[in-house]
Amino acid sequence: MSTYQVGYFVGSLSSTSINRVLSRALIRLAPKNLEFTELTIGNLPLYSPDHDTRYPPAPQALKDAIAASDAVLFVTPEYNRSIPGALKNAIDWASRPWGQNSFDHMPAAVIGASPGAIGTAVGQQSLRAVLSFCNARQMTAPEAYITATPGLFSTGGEVNDDSTASFLGDFMQEFGDHIERVLTVLPRS
Ligand code: FNR
User: Fold this and answer.
1) What pLDDT, on a 0 to 100 scale, did the predictor assign at position 162?
2) Which of 36, 48, 95, 128 stands the most exposed, by the fewest C-beta atoms within 10 Å?
3) Which of 111, 114, 122, 126 to mutate to test the pocket of ligand 1 (most atoms within 8 A of CB)?
């Protein structure tokens, strides 16, 4: 079985982020052949095409980290029925300069948690539209809209509900299968 490097984005900059806790849970429940590295977004300046000829160190480090990944995972809240600006800014940096889009053919999956009943569903659709334009190879199913009720997760990422743990474990298994399928057809150079 091949080992795959998964770079993951946490869309929230909150020190108490439930999506960061969710990312810990996903890593705990993932198949052992997936290895995880966070793709940091909180240190990025705002994107401007003025930088396209010479990327600053932090955005260049982001692009290098994505290039070192076999797949990307987005774990994000929904902000105003879309995605947080910090995450969109990171995607914009990674998608440029023109012709050097870091997401081209990249296996990708999207998941998110909110306290609300629809569990980031609308935000995820917004993110999927962005990733489609970036030509990422998205896992279309299963979808995962997590309603984060009090006590569902411990801060270390333990899941205190068996059916949720089973669902998240299946999601990560499917993501592992998706990565293998995509890379079989579209190996990373
Ligand atoms: C929110 N929240 C929110 N929730 C939701 O279900 N749909 C939404 O559109 C929004 N919009 C929104 C905008 C802004 C600016 C904030 C700060 C919050 C609530 C959000 O789901 C909640 O704060 C989560 O806890 C955010 O995730 P993290 O930061 O805890 O990972």
Assistant:
1) 98
2) 48
3) 114
Confidence of residue 84 (pLDDT cuts 50, 70, 90): very high
Inter-CA distances, 17 with 1, 6, 112, 157, Å: 33, 20, 11, 12
Nearest CA to ligand 1 atom 2: 79
Give the per-residue pLDDT at 1.
82
Condensed to tens digits (0 to 9), the pLDDT of residues 131-169 reads: 999 999 999 999 999 999 999 999 999 999 999 999 999
State the Cα–Cα distance between residues 71 and 35, nearest whole angstrom: 10
Query: How many angstroms does the Cα of residue 113 sit away from the middle of ligand 1?
Result: 9
State in Å: Cα 148 to ligand 1 middle: 11
Establish whether residue 79 lines the binding site of ligand 1, counting it when its CB lies within 6 angstroms of any ligand atom. yes
Q: Where are the alpha helices (DSSP H) in the chain?
A: 18-29, 57-67, 85-95, 121-133, 162-185
Write the residue with the smallest CA distance to atom 29 of ligand 1: 17
CB of 12 shorter than 6 A to ligand 1? yes
> Ligand 1: which residue has its CA nearest to atom 30?
17
Is the Cα dihedral 129, 75, 136, 183 positive or negative?
negative
User: pLDDT per residue over 85-111, tens digit each?
Assistant: 999 999 999 999 999 999 999 999 999
